[in-house]
Design goal:
Structural class: alpha+beta
Strand content: 35-45%
Number of helices: 3
Helix content: 10-25%
Length: 166
């Protein structure tokens, strides 16, 4: 059975019902998450989406995914990171940066430190083709260069990402 996602309006408020992703209409939005994972050297992990993905195949991007109707966005971050990279995060270690509209989604953005070396990732080839790391300046330059990222998303990431790194 297809998983359900909660439907939101353009203000980020739940419309009070859930649907399968493939039945979402143009005036309905769903919640997604992005997690900016960094290591002890403050390098950030990027993943290349599998080439057969329906959305953005082959694109280098931040780990993330859709929030299911029965979960909080922080739970989705933990689930997506485990599913895609084989890394287990503790919800208490997540740093919430904020929520905004981006590329047709409402997005909750988080950061988290990973004590594990990214070389220890067990990537799910159905989701992820490859991984690499970028330092903060390289990451911000790349994120800012992507035409899919809207101004409000870029402002949130540029304003809060640096402050969130421990």
């Amino acid at each position: 059975m297809a998983e359900l996602v909660t439907v939101y309006d353009e203000n980020g408020q739940s419309k009070g019902y859930a649907k399968t992703v493939d039945t979402i209409k143009d005036d309905e939005l769903i919640l997604a998450v992005h997690i900016y994972l960094y290591d002890k050297d403050k390098n950030f992990l990027l993943q290349q989406r599998a080439f057969d993905k329906k959305e953005l195949p082959g694109l280098w991007c931040i780990t993330g995914g859709k929030v299911q109707s029965d979960e909080h966005s922080s739970d989705a971050v933990v689930r997506e990171t485990k599913e895609e990279l084989g890394l287990t995060l503790d919800k208490n270690d997540l740093n919430y940066l904020g929520r905004c509209l981006n590329n047709g989604y409402i997005v909750d953005i988080y950061t988290a430190y990973s004590a594990l070396a990214f070389t220890e990732c067990k990537i799910n080839k159905a989701e992820v083709n490859d991984i690499k790391t970028l330092n903060l300046n390289e990451l911000l330059a790349y994120i800012n260069s992507l035409s899919i990222n809207e101004t409000n998303y870029l402002k949130l990431v540029n304003d809060k990402l640096i402050k969130s790194i421990k």
